[in-house]
Amino acid sequence: MIEYILMIVAVLGAVIALTQRDLLKTAILTGIPGAAIAFLFQFLLAPDVALTQAIVGTAIVPVFFALAVKKTLRMEEE
Amino acid sequence: MIIDPQLGSFFTAGALIIIGLFAALFIDNLIKKVIGLLFIADGVNLFIVTMGYKAGGIVYVFLPGMTVDWFAQNASYPLPFALVLTSIVIGASTLAVMLSLIIILYKKHGSIKASKILGEKGNQTQSKTPGDKI
Amino acid sequence: MSLYDVIINKIKQIQDSDKEGGPVTNITASSTLAAEITLLSSILVVVIMLRYYSNALMVIAVLLVIGIIVFAMPIMPKLKKEQNDSLNSMIFYAILILGIITTLFYWGSLNV
Amino acid sequence: MNPLIPLMVIIPIACALILNLFHTKDRTVKIIAIIIAIILPSIPLFTNYGYHYFGGYAPLIENPALAQGLPVSITASALNVFHPAITYYFGSAQQIFMVVLGIIAFLAILTSLSETRKPSGVYAFLMFMGVASMSAIILTDDIFNLYVFFEIIAVTQVGIVVASKVKGNMETALKYMIIGSIASPLLLLGVALLLGVTGNVNITDIIYSIKTGLVNPQSPVLLMACGLIIFGWLYAAGLPPFHTIKSEIYSRALPHGAALLQAFSVFTLVAIGLIIIKIFAFFPFANVFIVGISVIAMILSITMALMQTDFKRIIGFLAVGELGYIGIGLGLGTAASITAGLFQAINEAIITAFLFIGFGTILYKTRESDIRKLGGIMVEMPKVTLLVLLSGLAMAGVPPLNAFQSKLMLIQSSLSAGVPELGIIMILLSIVTFMTFMKAFYAIYMRPKPSTLKIIDSNIPKATIFSLVVFLILCIILGLFPQIATSYLQPLANSLI
């Protein structure tokens, strides 16, 4: 059952991340689909890929985005 | 009706790819556009991993006590997983390059809207000194 | 006023309306005309290739193209405006072509 | 096993890393870069044809020692002939492609080192890295390996554009990267679908599976894979809808960078195009599509080239337009047309590099690329003008030069394939190509010099003129003796039918 929840979380997380106006929130929320996909990889019998995705998808990529947002604009322009 | 986890996973991958394409096409903010591209890459990775999945199978580690035939029938298919590892790393690195270019362009134009800084412009290029150091 | 003058004036008018291109010289106008003629003649030749599928389709397509030529004469300035350097239009065309390719290959190939 | 085959990829990568280390040490960078650049085209000349298996894992059928202990269920099945390792194949066609790529890389690097006052280790790093990944794309027989190097070459191209100081280069680089990030995951998806259907990433094995009926060729998933790989191919080669971004990339790079970038596009087009027509040979619609998109590429790019005012953009669009000829050759699918298309690819790579470096001398002298502000350069440098004129004649296909031979072969093969319309379009568009070239040439060289134009008082470096002369000699040799190239290409074309 947990895998279906993860699938829904991945898709919803992606949508929610893209609909934020605060780009910093967007950057942090990017980690949610990343983490959900990492768990899904574990469920799909690929533990090594899950480890890599857990590091890259939930830590490195959101930090990249957060740094980019810090260097540019916090709020989305009109 | 409950769908097969593998099929559900394929649908998730497809949904992520479509969300990514939608974001790349319709969102004008460059950072969100790049996030959309990340979702495309994630969706493709999920798709590939799902292909190697075997319902009711085991992780592809050969433990003592298994016979070769039993292992071949029950283990998941590891080749796609090896590909995905490479693809995740490539995705993260191209992402870093794109974000650094966005930061440079923000310093130049003061905006991160695609229609403003990557919009329609004249086609003239003017070379500064090509002899200068890079 | 001959037909040539009519077309050249129209091209100059259209190019004057977008200020970014700089001054309209005779070279730009005549090269637009040359591009226009190249485009039309090569499209006509391409359309003739439809005869491998069906002769009737070819006749209809040729007539259609000739009709477009007559009614929308300076096509090239519009086409140039369409193929601009804006990221959003590039992505739009990329995804449009992706859609066309997937449709053609996934469904079209089963029955062709 | 052939130890020289991986060296074609390893040497440029190693050299690239070393050059990056020696950044700011100008003399060292210059010497190392030139020595390695001379070595590059000469390795393929001394390499024997054959396969290289990374890690030494040959197929079981060639490896009886390993096959001994295995159960019959493996050795009796198709697994016996499958390739377990990443495989590189080096044949006669690969040999001539590698030599031409090596020569273009050598001349581009030589020109860049002599035209820049301070040679940059980083720029040389990018050039060598690009050459390495291009070699891998030409040599590889493994479709995932191809994807990896496809990504590396995309980043390298962005790097070459970013490293030029041309106005607007960052914007172009970001655009190219964003569009690339849409196209390359979809190429990967195509690769994944192929892997899912056939369980294999080795091209030879995929073809084997399809031919022997292990896989149903009419499976819609396979056709979808074909579509997605073709989409990635369009991006890599710069055919429509990517012709605008590709020509922009050329125009925002330095001339020697652009010469190398167009060589990358040409060879990627050939390498991935060959893979498509090899794997999907059972599917005639793929060939029709390739011909169609090539014709559209020719028409759109050449008409757009006529409308431009920046000469770098004009050559950029012409370069994309010429790619259409190669696509037509590959798509027609007869042995003669594929040979002609591959020969046209070689000629196109040489001639466009010739044009970019030739017109680059104007940038060197005036720092100006808008043809409306240029004029009267012929008086300044008559010898270079003659060379540039010859390059334009070569591109248009004037008899003693090489493109004449390949275009003639293409037109003949289109006639014998029963599609005379393609021949007519090719003739028409090569005339218009020449007209576009002459328009730029007249405006830059022959018109009286505008009073606002400042010409910088420095001589064209000897190395640039040397490069141009080498390109001209190559054009004349291939034009007079086309069988030098075609004899290498024919075996590949015949094997595809």
Can you give a write-up of this model?
The complex is a heterotetramer of chains A (78), B (134), C (112) and D (497). By secondary structure, chain A is mostly helical. Chain A has one domain. Helices cover 81% and strands 0% of the residues of chain A. Chain A has helices at residues 2-19, 23-29, 31-43, 47-71. Chain A is flat. Chain A starts with a helix and ends in a 7-residue tail after the last helix. Chain B has a domain at 5-58 and 75-113: Helix Hairpins (Orthogonal Bundle), CATH 1.10.287. Chain B has helices spanning 5-26, 30-52, 68-74, 78-109, 114-117. The longest helix of chain B is centred in the C-terminal third of the chain and has 32 residues, at 78-109. Chain B is elongated. The model of chain B is unreliable at 122-134 (pLDDT under 50). Chain C is mostly helical and 112 residues long. Chain C has one domain. The longest helix of chain C is centred in the C-terminal third of the chain and has 25 residues, at 87-111. The termini of chain C are far apart. A two-stranded antiparallel ribbon of chain D has the order 1-2. Chain D has a domain at 283-497. With 497 residues, chain D is mostly helical. In chain D, 75% of the residues lie in helices and 2% in strands. The interface between B and D is large, with 48 and 56 residues.
Helicity of chain A, as a percent range: over 70%
**What portion of the residues of chain B fall into strands of 2 or more residues?**
under 5%
Distance between the termini of chain A: 41 Å
The quaternary organization reads as heterotetramer
> How many strands, which pairing sense, and closed or not: the largest β-sheet of chain A?
none
The largest chain-to-chain contact, stated as pair and per-chain residue counts, equals:
B-D, 48 and 56 residues
Q: Mind telling me the C-alpha Rg of chain A?
A: 14 Å
Structural class of chain A: mainly alpha
Q: Can you count the beta strands of chain A?
A: 0
Report the mean per-residue pLDDT of chain A as an integer: 90
Shape of chain B: elongated
Number of strands of chain B: 0
**How many domains make up the 3D coordinates of chain A?**
1
Total number of helical segments of chain A? 4
Helices and strands of chain B, in N-to-C order?
HHHHH
Low-confidence stretches of chain A: none
So how many helices of chain B?
Answer: 5
Order of helices and strands of chain A: HHHH
Provide the β-strand percentage band of chain A.
Answer: under 5%
In terms of structural class, how would the helical and strand content of chain B be classed?
A: mainly alpha
The CATH architecture of the domain at 5-58 and 75-113 in chain B can be named as Orthogonal Bundle
